[in-house]
Amino acid sequence: MIHEADDQSIQDILDIHIKGTLYGFRYLIPAIKETVGTDGPTGSIVVNSSCMGESTIGPKSNRNGIYAASKAFLNNVVKTTAVENAPLKMHHESVSLVSWQVW
User: Fold this and answer.
1) How far apart (Å, rounded) are the C-alpha atoms in residues 45 and 29?
2) pLDDT tens-place string over residues 12-44
């Protein structure tokens, strides 16, 4: 549960999922901008998301809600950068692999 998460768990998830992606975009997008052409897409951004970015389904854990929120952030930041960089014809994708087993 979110209210039971310790500071280090919160920081770890935020550092990896949110800060890591933002810092990656900080360097990746300018590099792609340097390759702007008129013949089509100039580059791609693919972010590994999770089905938990759309739902909080999963095993109970004090990190579950924070993880789900960080993945929802990733889904939204990909949409935002797609709009911001639309003139560059960059391809943006948030990938979420789902594997369900029914017992």
Assistant:
1) 8
2) 989 998 999 999 999 988 888 877 665 655 678
CATH (one of 3.10.20.340, 2.40.128.630, 2.30.30.40, 3.40.50.720) for 2-95 = 3.40.50.720
pTM as predicted: 0.73
CB 88 within 8 A of CB 42: yes
Give me 20's structure tokens: 């890591």
Half-sphere exposure of 84 (CA within 13 A, CB side): 10
Q: How far is CA 57 from CA 4, 62, 96, in A?
A: 18, 13, 14
Sole residue written with tokens 């300018």 = 30
DSSP string, 26-77: HHHHHHHHTT--SSS---EEEEE--GGGT---S---TTHHHHHHHHHHHHHH
Give me the mean pLDDT over the 54-78 stretch: 74
